């Protein structure tokens, strides 16, 4: 993977408070894990951006090296790697994801 891809990924992560690297788009997720990640973020009511890794092979490979995480989707909050859909689900069920979003000022306390 090129340094350009790493730089581009870093730039996208830095530019968005909540960012989901996924397969497909929020309206048309291309895998069950991406679909679950979108459902969790939508349920939280948080504004987020997404990157469809199927549209860009450099990003698809690069994001795995960038985060040192082997699977997609990947969630970033305020530049910090949170995890994939399993971690998102565990955090969501434990109330930790909601707390994180509130602490970062991304959703109002419910």
From TrEMBL:
Keywords: 2Fe-2S, Iron, Iron-sulfur, Metal-binding, Redox-active center
Binding site for [2Fe-2S] cluster: 31
Hydrolase as UniProt keyword: no
GO MF annotation, one: 2 iron, 2 sulfur cluster binding
Keyword Cell cycle among record annotations: no
Coiled coil: none
PANTHER family: GLUTAREDOXIN FAMILY MEMBER (PTHR10293), MONOTHIOL GLUTAREDOXIN-S14, CHLOROPLASTIC (PTHR10293:SF72)
Family, similarity comment: Belongs to the glutaredoxin family. Monothiol subfamily.
Protein name as catalogued: Glutaredoxin
Native source organism of the sequence: Sphingomonas ursincola
Gene that this polypeptide is encoded by: grxD
């Amino acid at each position: 993977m090129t340094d350009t891809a790493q730089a581009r990924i870093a730039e996208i992560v830095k530019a968005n408070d909540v960012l989901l690297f996924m397969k497909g788009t929020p309206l048309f997720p291309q895998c069950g894990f991406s679909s679950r990640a979108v459902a969790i973020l939508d349920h939280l009511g948080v504004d987020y951006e997404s990157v469809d890794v199927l549209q860009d092979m450099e990003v698809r490979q690069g994001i795995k090296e960038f985060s040192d995480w082997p699977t997609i989707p990947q969630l970033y909050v305020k530049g910090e790697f949170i995890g994939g859909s399993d971690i998102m689900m565990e955090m969501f069920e434990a109330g930790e994801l909601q707390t994180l979003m509130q602490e970062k000022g991304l959703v109002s306390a419910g």
